[in-house]
Design the sequence.
């Protein structure tokens, strides 16, 4: 698999290193990266020789969320185009969530917006002690819509409401308390912790692992197609508001939005 924004490196045991490779952009989710992650999931799914996938981000930040160029394009787009783009993100998250292999996230630096969504579709996330997280969309007059079904499935509604609307940043310890993160370790131990999560699957029947994961998703009734469609429509509605226009404009103008107090 040859990609521009991600790299795929399997070892001889079948543990695959899937790395987001836009370190200069803090691994922000561009249209190309979304497409490549979706394609990776389609290619990886049938492979029973690939036993586990470890998702990482190059550089100092796991994933900063949506790409700024993509965001600017959404402001200029019509509703149908916005919904089509949101659907691409939603289908990428669904593809990773439905991946038959266990997906292990490794978070350094930070995970914001869509980066939290990536954490939520992982089966296990290990994070550095100093990692930061945030559902920051409401600062821009937007909402965490397409990632919402996975965040709610991961945290549960009650826990999610602590951080879903406030856009406040929170640390790895709180992310663990919110069920977003499974293990918190020193940054130097991240690779070792990911290896410890992936290794047990080498002793398991890969077909049984895939079936067990599929059953867990079915029993959990997490992100349904109806939820995904509703999240896309909700995001499109929000993009059309005055708050979204003001919030995104303020972000790019490097000024405070009109609603900021204090």
Sequence:
């Amino acid at each position: 698999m040859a990609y521009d924004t991600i790299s795929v490196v399997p070892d001889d045991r079948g543990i695959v290193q899937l790395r987001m490779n836009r370190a200069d952009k803090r691994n922000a989710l561009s249209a190309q990266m979304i497409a490549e992650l979706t394609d990776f999931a389609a290619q990886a799914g049938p492979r029973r020789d690939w036993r586990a996938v470890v998702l990482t981000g190059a550089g100092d930040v796991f994933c900063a969320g949506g790409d700024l160029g993509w965001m600017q394009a959404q402001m200029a787009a019509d509703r149908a185009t916005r919904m089509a783009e949101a659907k691409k993100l939603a289908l990428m998250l669904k593809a990773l969530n439905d991946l038959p292999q266990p997906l292990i996230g490794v978070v350094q630096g930070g995970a914001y917006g869509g980066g939290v969504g990536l954490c939520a579709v992982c089966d296990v996330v290990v994070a550095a002690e100093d990692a930061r997280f945030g559902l920051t969309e409401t600062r821009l007059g937007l909402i965490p819509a397409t990632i919402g079904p996975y965040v709610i499935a991961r945290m549960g509604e009650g826990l999610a409401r602590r951080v879903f609307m406030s856009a406040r940043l929170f640390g790895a310890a709180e992310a663990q308390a919110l069920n977003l993160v499974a293990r918190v370790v020193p940054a130097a131990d991240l690779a070792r912790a990911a290896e410890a999560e992936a290794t047990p699957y080498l002793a398991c029947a890969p077909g049984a692992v895939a079936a067990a994961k599929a059953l867990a998703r079915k029993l959990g009734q997490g992100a349904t197609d109806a939820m995904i469609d509703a999240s896309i429509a909700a995001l499109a509605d929000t993009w059309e508001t005055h708050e979204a226009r003001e919030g995104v404009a303020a972000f790019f103008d490097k000024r405070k939005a009109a609603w900021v107090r204090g």
Q: What stands out?
A: The domain at 6-187 is CATH 3.90.226.10 (2-enoyl-CoA Hydratase; Chain A, domain 1). The first strand starts at residue 6 and ends at 10.
